[in-house]
Amino acid sequence: MHVHFLLILAVISLMKRASANCSKNNTAGENSQIEMNAQKGELASPGYPEFFTDDIQCTWYIYVARKYSIELEFIFFDFGNSQPCSTTEDESYLEVRDGVHRDSQQLGLFCGHARPEKISTIGSQMRVSFKASRYRSVKFKATYRAVRDSPPIVLVIAGVSTIVGLMMILLLLTLYLKRKRRNCDEENTNECQNQENEQNRPSGASATQEEHIDLQFSPVVERTNTRKQSFSEQELGTSCYKNQRKQSQSHGTLARENLAPVVE
Question: For residue 99, is pLDDT > 60?
Fold first, then answer.
């Protein structure tokens, strides 16, 4: 029972601190340990929208779920003419850090009349410190909300992977084109060498062809000579035949003359 009672008190205390806000009625310990665990909420100076002129300091510790970041947006901001900003005891300021520790990265130190731009953390925790001076009237109001992370690291990795992939594709394409061009050059070189070899070979080849031509035409020449000889023999036979016929005709004439009757 005692353990359960302590747990109930702890839960009640946690709920009280989580729902507490910066107030001049709170003790210094309560104002310096304002925890906010919801996914969205509000921060404001004591008595907002009234100006506050009391010497007080409040610190908010904001926690949201993991894989979320925190976005802080100011609705109103007026810290007087305290420029440049300083964290001395006599100055009013608002400080925002990316984390809940004193040495967490500072996202901004604000004062004066200008309303700060929207502030975002990298992690899921934020520390907001408010300091008011009794010598200057101040007031502010801001809201925060949890934002689902689209991890920058993942985006960077995806972008780098895409660039590396494109570079690899270009490299492979370049190597392929170079290899193809080299193969074409080798083929052209072989063709040129073959042509040169053919041009350098013609003496032996033509001689062989001429020999073949001579060998092929030699029987033709012999046939031509044979045909010429046969033609000569035929002409000679014809001429002999003609001479014999003339002689026979002449002998016949003489015979007929010899056979003519003698008239006394």
Answer: yes
DSSP state of 201: S
3-class DSSP state of 244: helix
Query: What confidence score (pLDDT) does residue 70 get?
Result: 96
**In this structure, are residues 163 and 117 in contact, taking their beta carbons and an 8 Å threshold?**
no
pTM of the model: 0.52
DSSP 146: E
First to last CA, the chain: 206
Q: Which residue has the tokens 């509000």?
A: 42
Sheet of strand 56-63: strand arrangement: 34-36, 56-63, 125-132, 93-98, 105-110
Q: What share of the chain is helix, strand, coil (3-state, %, to 5)?
A: 50, 25, 25
Given this model, what pLDDT does residue 109 score? 94
Kind of pairing between the strands at 68-78 and 139-148 = antiparallel
Distance CA 65, CA 1 (A): 32
Number of helical H runs and strand E runs in the chain: 4, 9
